[in-house]
């Protein structure tokens, strides 16, 4: 199975990044608008901001707030195949390291175009989140000793 991995460093506290992964109003700022906040055991649908079409959907499988979030995940071109998206958040001095692992993707030659499209899409979305973090998000409080 193919896995796409992306890591970005964000100048924001983990709880702020977590909110951007789980709150409907914030998901729409960097990914796709959600119909509701994401919560363990609940299905989710993310829609196009442009026309409201269903873009991707799945279920929140597990959550360890501010550390790890796992979704099942699919998009139309996967023809019903459910994949897995894991988000890992690590606290860093001055911010958060966010790693995305999208696994369970097909690995045959016919699917390579889809893998390229998903890879490009994730690259853009996490880049958008990084752009928001660089400009708009509250910075972590610096430790003083």
Automatic annotation (TrEMBL):
Name of the protein in its database record: SRPBCC domain-containing protein
Q: From which domain of life does this come?
A: Bacteria
Species assigned in the record: Thalassococcus arenae
All copies of the Activator of Hsp90 ATPase homologue 1/2-like C-terminal domain together span 12-125
């Amino acid at each position: 199975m193919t896995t796409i991995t992306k890591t970005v460093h964000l100048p924001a506290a983990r709880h702020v990044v977590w909110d951007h992964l789980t709150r409907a109003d914030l998901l729409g700022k960097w990914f796709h608008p959600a119909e509701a906040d994401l919560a363990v055991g609940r299905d989710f649908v993310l829609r196009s901001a442009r026309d409201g079409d269903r873009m991707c959907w799945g279920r929140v499988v597990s959550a360890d707030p501010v550390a790890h979030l796992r979704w099942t995940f699919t998009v139309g071109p996967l023809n019903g195949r459910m994949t897995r998206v894991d988000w890992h958040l690590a606290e860093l001095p001055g911010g958060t390291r966010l790693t995305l692992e999208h696994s369970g993707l097909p690995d045959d030659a016919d699917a390579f175009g889809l893998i390229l499209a998903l890879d490009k899409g994730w690259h853009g979305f996490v880049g958008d989140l990084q752009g928001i973090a660089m400009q708009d998000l509250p910075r972590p409080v610096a430790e003083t000793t």
